[in-house]
Amino acid sequence: MSGEARIRIAVQKSGRLSEKSLELVKSCGIDFNVDPRVLMCGASNFPLDFLFVRDDDIPTYVADGVADIGIVGRNELDESGITLPVVRDLGFAGCRLSIAVKRGDDYDGLSWLEGKRIATSYPRILGRVLSEAGVTAELVRVSGSVEITPSIGIADCICDIVSTGTTLRMNGLVEVEAVYKSTAVMVARPDLEADVGLEAVLSRLLLRMDTVSAARKKKYILFNLPADKVDDAARIVGGMKSPTVTHLLDEGWVSVQSVVAEDRFWSVFEDLKAIGAEGILVMPIEKMSQ
Ligand code: PRT
Ligand code: ZN
After folding, report:
1. Contact between 55 and 45 (Cβ < 8 Å)
2. Of the four listed, 164, 218, 226, 257, which is most buried by Cβ atoms within 10 Å?
3. 57 lines ligand 1 (CB under 6 A)
4. Does the structural domain 7-93+184-215 have CATH classification 3.40.190.10?
């Protein structure tokens, strides 16, 4: 459609954020074809264009208006020193920035770092943590392979991104303190609100994202129950409003439908079994709007 505002999203071209970022957009019913040879591509059924870049560049591109929104690790955003509105915490690519020392070192808190050489790719975030703790240390800025710096004598210890901890272990290091936590976030350029057309497109996108994410946190549950246990079941299940109860041909039995939060599912399931529920069916929910 000519004249329709199209929103441009910066996503990581290739790395730990790429797949989940594209999956998120796909889950909103937005169709596109990614050609790895090109830097941009457009969605066919929603006014959205992708810009594929290195994650380090995403805060700058969004701040400069090259992109309207972007998906980036909170660590990368904070380290960039650029302040941008975070419109959603997306929850994926979770990791932490941790202090790791050589096996056998007697680390006993941040004060242990006083006067030490710490290798990191995150001098800004670490600098803030140390200054809040009143610790002065020498930060050795490295852009990769941080974990090898203590063994080659460049640093006494490191501060790096950890997710499973395998990399540290393989390099004879011990994670002693997590100083910062990160997940992927969606950021927007600060002046986006002023553009009514783009702001409306962003709202549509966020509504779709929220609808999908609400659905993923819930399960649809269907079960048969002795009719005199309906009040107990309603208490156990909770749900959006009250559960839907249908009478069965078999007198004295009802069928109950409701929605249960994923993280409460097993306790609900066990409690329902305990009051005599049978034929319990559990189904994923694709979309959900309150
Ligand atoms: O090429 P480009 O610049 O775009 O990508 P990149 O290499 O800079 O970033 P990438 O793809 O490695 O990571 C992108 C984002 O993913 C990071 O900014 C974090 O927000 C997030 N993330 C989540 C991680 C990790 N988990 C992670 N484990 N980023 C890096 N790591 C590295 C870490 O640096 C260390 O080398 O993985 C290693 C540790 O992993 P474990 O599992 O052994 O502990
Ligand atoms: Zn990067």
Report:
1. no
2. 218
3. no
4. yes
The Cα 137–Cα 117 span in angstroms is 6
Report the alpha-carbon distance of residue 71 to residue 41 in Å, rounded.
16
| Angle of helix 230-237 versus helix 265-274 axis, rounded to 10 | 170
Whether 98 is in the pocket of ligand 1, judged by its Cβ within 6 Å, is no
Note the CATH number of domain 218-284: 3.30.70.120
For the beta carbon of residue 288, count every other beta carbon within 10 angstroms: 17
Instruction: Indicate the fold that domain 95-182 takes in CATH.
Output: D-Maltodextrin-Binding Protein; domain 2 (3.40.190)
- Mean pLDDT, 10 residues at a time, the chain of 290 residues: 83 97 97 90 97 97 98 98 98 97 97 98 98 98 97 97 97 98 98 96 97 91 95 83 83 92 92 96 88
Distance separating alpha carbons of residues 34 and 26, to the nearest angstrom: 12
